[in-house]
Structure formats: structure tokens, C-alpha cells
Amino acid sequence: MRPITIITGGSRGIGAATALWLARAGHDLALCYRGNRSSAEEVADQVTSHGGRCVLVRADVSQESDVDRLFDETAEQLGPVTGLVNNAGLTAHVGDLADTPVEVIRQVIDVNFLGTVLCSRRAAQVMSTRRGGPGGAIVNVSSGAATLGAAHEYVHYAGAKAAVDAFTAGLAKELAQDGVRVNAVAPGLVRTDIHAGAGVPERLETAVSRVPMGRAGEPEDIAPAIGWLLGPESAYTSGAVLRVAGGL
Ligand code: NAP
């Protein structure tokens, strides 16, 4: 049986690299994206060139009805879901909290934390063996910011990612006897569009001096950690937060 895995934010960056890693490992994939259809189609073409099936679903992970549709369409087109990568996220804005608009704070918490909770809730419903599902694994994409705090950049984002870590610990315990493992990966500074999306495309260059290894990570540095936590080799690992941050 091929694993059937949903990746939120699968159209770009870490999610896209994870999609290619999982395609090579034999997964069929549902890629959720928010608006960038053409980028999602490029990733889907690469996934299918590795022999995997791939469906694209436009969904905002912070909206319950979109999350329901994401899971329903995936099950209809691919079969029972066995994996979820909660990767969709954004920083949106860089600055001190006192200068950050409330609507930005709400969006950052909604996408990074509430989106992870809503998608994991549906995954628990359909994957739990106690509820008749096939079992599986959830990997949440946290951030090194969860422990560093991201002062003068986005402390509310750091708080949302710390919430993801606590949620990972709790849900791992809740689902431990239901055939579902729950883990997180915490990347450091990674070369993706997230920085330009926050209005600071130069952040990679300005922040790299903080990274002990002296370089930014590539999305391909993060994908194998996510893939390992989803796969059978990590069968006894649940509740872990695996930092992949160049020593940060
Ligand atoms: P990215 O290149 O900006 O890609 C973000 C992805 O999330 C895109 O696929 C985007 O879809 C999707 N997305 C955004 N908002 C969404 C929503 N409301 N609903 C559904 N999808 C949504 O970002 P990235 O750097 O790869 O980040 C991936 C994850 O890694 C995030 O959780 C981020 O917080 C975390 N992270 C990143 C870094 C870093 O330095 N890059 C460091 C630590 C943690 P569209 O393409 O349709 O817009």
C-alpha cells in the first residue's frame, strides 16, 4: 500500500521540497496551496514524473470548511489518508510587536497555529485506528523561533510556533495508542520566499551571521527530516521536535 500524504503549503519552499522527497519515497500526495496555482502545478508535474499520484487542492488552512474539503477531496481522489505535513505558514511582517497591526497578528496565529490544529483534528478523525482509520503520522513544521523568541522580528509568530510544539507533545500522547504518531521539525533560517513575503527579501543575508554553520539552510535540508518522521523508520518516535537549523 502506498502512503497517502497531505502537505499543506505544498506549492513552494519547504513544502515543495518535501513533496519531491516523499514522491521519491513512494508517497501519493495531495498538495494544498492558498493561491499560487501555477507553482503548485509545477510541483505536481515533478511528483507525477516520479510515478506518484498527485492532487492539488486550493484551501486556506485557517478555514474549517476549506480543511474539510481538503481532506474529503484527497480521500475521494487518492484513498484513505495516512500522513499529514502541517507546513503552511507565513511570517507576513517584520518588526517590533508594538508596531505590528492586529490583523497581521491574527493572520499569523491563524495560519501557523490554528491551521495546524484544524488539519490535525481532521487527520485524527480519519487516521485513528480506534475510529476505523488506517493509522499514520503527522509532522508539524515549527520553527527555531519557538525557542529563540524572534525579538524585533515577529514574537507573535514565535509564540504560535511554540504553541505548535506544545500541541505536538499533547497530541502525540493523545493518539499514541491510536496508531498515529505526531512529531515536529523546527527549521532555522531557510532560503524560501517566506522572507520576501514578510517584506524583507534580504533577511537571508542579514540573519545568516547568527547561524553557527555560517550558511542558510535550503528547503532540501529540511525535507529529509520531515520524510523520516513520516516514515516507518521512526516507528518509535512520537512527540519529538527535531531541530534542523545549522546549530542555531
Ligand atoms: P514559503 O516558501 O513562503 O511557502 C509557504 C507555503 O504556504 C506556500 O505553499 C503557500 O501557498 C502556503 N500557504 C500560506 N498561507 C496559507 C494558507 N492560509 N493556507 C494554505 N496554504 C498557505 O514558506 P516556507 O519558508 O517554505 O515555510 C514553510 C513552513 O516552514 C512554514 O510553516 C514556516 O513558518 C516554516 N519555517 C520557515 C523558515 C524559513 O526560514 N523559511 C524557518 C522556520 C520555519 P501559496 O504558494 O499558494 O501562497
TrEMBL record:
<dbReference type="InterPro" id="IPR036291">
    <property type="entry name" value="NAD(P)-bd_dom_sf"/>
</dbReference>
<dbReference type="InterPro" id="IPR002347">
    <property type="entry name" value="SDR_fam"/>
</dbReference>
<protein>
    <submittedName>
        <fullName>SDR family oxidoreductase</fullName>
    </submittedName>
</protein>
<comment type="similarity">
    <text>Belongs to the short-chain dehydrogenases/reductases (SDR) family.</text>
</comment>
<dbReference type="Pfam" id="PF13561">
    <property type="entry name" value="adh_short_C2"/>
</dbReference>
<keyword id="KW-0560">Oxidoreductase</keyword>
